[in-house]
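Input for the complex:
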Amino acid sequence: MDQALQHLVNGTVLGGTYALLGIGLTLIFGVMRVVNFTHGELYTFGAYMAYGLVALLHVDFFLSLVLATMLGLALGALIELVLLRPMRKADIDSVMLVMIGAALVLQNAGLWAWGGVAKLVPTPFAGTPLVFGPVSVLPLRLFVLGVAATLLLVFWLLLERTRAGIAMRATFQDAETASLMGVRVGWVHTATFAIGSGLAAAAGALLGPVFMVSPAMGDLVGLKAFAIVILGGLGNLPGAVIGGFALGYVEEFGGGFVSSEYRDAFGFLLIILVLAIRPQGLVALKERVG
Amino acid sequence: MSAVFGWLFVAAMAAVPVVFPDPYVLSVLTSAGIFIIGAISLNLLLGYTGQLSLGHAAFFGLGAYASALVSLGFDIGIGFGLRLRLDPQPVFVGFLAGIAVAGAFGWLLGRLAFRVRGAYFVVITICFAQVLRMVALNWVELTQGPMALIGIPPASLWLPGQGVVPLYTKPQSFWLVLGVGTLAFLLVRQVVQSRIGRALVALRENETLARSVGIRVTHYLVIATVLSAGIAGAAGSLFAHYVRIIDPDVFLFIYTVTMVIMVITGGKGTLWGPVVGGLIFGLMPDLLRGSAPPEAQWIAYGVLMILLVMFLPRGIVPAVAGLLPARRRPAPAIAAMVEPAP
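Predicted:
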């Protein structure tokens, strides 16, 4: 029982960052119909920016998290303007291929720039876990969960309460009608991709210090982001949050009670199962087609 | 491209080991040939059914592992105190097993994944390869996990009068790959020119319309996947017996991406596309070797892929064919299919 409680706590921490990753990816798909293969690379980018700022430039840890997120936003905007804007009329498969090409470039540029050795990001947090009865958790992880939850809340407020958010939701529902109503769809796309990328970079900057930072760290994470989004239904924002936590718990409990070696495989098996039994995703309402 | 040109190409290739018996050149050509076979099989899905399957390395890896394990033999526990044991078999049995196992998984994936389309399909195919990689990494009793399967015997061929001959030398391996590649090409050509191929193209162009004229969409998609997986399994088997060591990295996404780039560059949905693209990308790494680090090479791949999709979306072969003097071409299959009955 105590062990289960511990797994619950770990799963929640993991799920928070997964939700951040998933919500960015699903937003980009929902608004732009783009399957974003660079998402995992943006995550890696965020982690390396945090590393570079903290370890090499000795910037304050908390400030560098903010800066890493901002740099992720900027890189996302750049990718949208250079690659996606000219491809707006292209079919979804061609765009996917372009994004795979971009992911190849980003990953190998990272490998070239930083080398293949994994890096450790120093943090101001104590290495001794906080103990609450049967459960113990590292202060850093608690901080990560807190920031992830805050970012999710800020993102939700942005979407619900601001004009930009309304424009984004309108484009999400019907791009053509939105543009007739005076929404500048092009800029909504740029903003969406930038925000989604910024969230991925934030997730990377947050998890980088928890684990190690390495050039290939985005590979598995990018695929997991897809898993999260498929679980919730592509383009479904609450679904991505639920999917993020679902994946966090499945990995944590599966890894703890079934097999730790297959920990990373549970997510993928879960997707295959979900698609076999309920192809529209766990929380999606309408039937999926193309 | 005409059949005469095709046979000339095969003959020229077959003469390479005689005219130019450099072991380095041959080994580069042999590995390029193995990936060209993979690209030919991927083209059947990507080019003719229009389904962007990004788990193709799964079939390649399954073929490699199945073939290697059958020819090495294994002895594993399968639960309930039972053991499954297989003595080492001749390599050609392994080769057939590689094709069969990959084809069987192709059927499974097809049944499962074609319930959905578009982005969902793509993600399932990627996950499929990932799960297999995890299994290969962790089922150490069977696959040796990250320690890799070593000592895989070289390919062998049964020749009349000489019995089973192991193919140790570079020219022999090259000819084997060329032979299998030619067979794969002919098989794919046969399929796409048959009723199955016409059905595939019809549903690529307009699935709803194809369904309305009575084409059993899932049925044909599964057939294409099984064939494609089987050929990819054959390529994987050749790979295993050629490099003679395999590890779970054969399931990596990057191998799928390599094959995708080959097909896209050459021209998806054309018979010669994967061959042309495969020659370019199969030989380029070795031409660049020494002059650029591998990261730079991958960056170049990525940039090239972006530029091709943006500016030459149909690939090299259709672009070159467009420059050649126009000949009478048969009407596209879709036009033939939707013609009103007299």
